[in-house]
Amino acid sequence: MENPLLLFPQLNISASKDKAYYKKSVIKEEPHKASKAGAKQKRNRLSLLLQKPEFHEGDPLGKAGSLTKAASVSPEEAVKWGESFDKLLSEKAGLDAFTKFLKTEFSEENIEFWIACEDYKQSKSAHELLPKAKTIFETFIQKDAPKEINIDFHTKNDISQKISEPTLSCFDAAQSSIYSLMAKDSFPRFLRSDVYKELLQ
């Protein structure tokens, strides 16, 4: 089967795995734990996803161009992000800063799922939908997925039933749930975080 990660051509996530601790952890895996090792490798590759500026190029989340470095953000711009969660997500630099914050809380899978859904909804043909939907499902939705998000059983089951013939809206309920979680829970903590406070100075 084709590697599903290659279905998103803007993701060049062939990361180097030459660190000693990584090799040791793979070598020590017992045969019956091989599937977990594979999931761990996939998670490590996906963790690089938002660190690459090319991932954001041409996406619907903000202005065209390369990802703005947080260091170049003016305090005035950062203040505007505090006005609303949508404003934060609409700015590339804001999205980058929020992602960095979520990584400190080990919950970056939420923003990565949200971005993947935004990309999915930009699909221009039915031919694109199935492989992209399966990639999202296998990465974020199915049980023991490498970046499994926290959604209710009903929503997860509904997606599972639709995944063989996906529509543009098949992830909407899950995306809305994760958006609400980030807006009500993660966003207020982001505004109190050192990551955000540094941008205001």
Automatic annotation (TrEMBL):
Family matches, as InterPro entries: RGS (IPR016137), RGS_sf (IPR036305), RGS_subdom1/3 (IPR024066), RGS_subdomain_2 (IPR044926)
Cell division recorded as keyword: no
Residue span(s) of domain RGS: 84-200
UniProt entry keywords in alphabetical sequence: Signal transduction inhibitor
Entry superkingdom: Eukaryota
Pfam family for this entry, one: RGS
Family annotation (PANTHER family): REGULATOR OF G PROTEIN SIGNALING (PTHR10845), REGULATOR OF G-PROTEIN SIGNALING 18 (PTHR10845:SF155)
Name of this protein: RGS18 protein
Organism: Erithacus rubecula
